[in-house]
Each structure stands twice: as C-alpha cells, then as structure tokens.
Amino acid sequence: MDEIKLGIIGVGNIGSSIANGLLWSWFKGRIILCDKHPEKVENFHSDFVEVVSEAALATGKSDVIILAVKPHAVKDAIAEIG
Known about the structure:
The chain is of the alpha/beta class.
C-alpha cells in the first residue's frame, strides 16, 4: 500500500491536536499542514510533516483532507481550496 498523505487545514487547537496525535500514534503516512498563521506550524518538525502556505496546495498533495478551522471560517477555507 502506498503512503497515505493526510492534509490538515487549520492548525489551531483541534488541528494541532490531531497532528500531534497522529505523530505519536501508529500513523506512518505523510501529514501536510496548512494554516494562515505561519507561527502555528513552526513546532511541527518531523520527517513525516510537510508545511504548505496555501490550502489548495494541501489538497493537491493529500489523499484525505481534515478541515480543522473555526465554523465561521469554513466557507472561506472551502473557497480557497477551489
């Protein structure tokens, strides 16, 4: 089976908890992180993590996307994805 690429858009409380949980668990795929605030992804340094600056890049590189943004930001995040 090929390596799973999981994208997380939004790396606040929920997104970072998911990413950390995956990094400390059985998940051995690749995690692609995207957040509008670069400082939120600074602490994610791993061979399994890639940081991108745009949501469309995250979706293009991922097999599965987790949209972990606040409810009021969902519409804008989906529009950015395309």
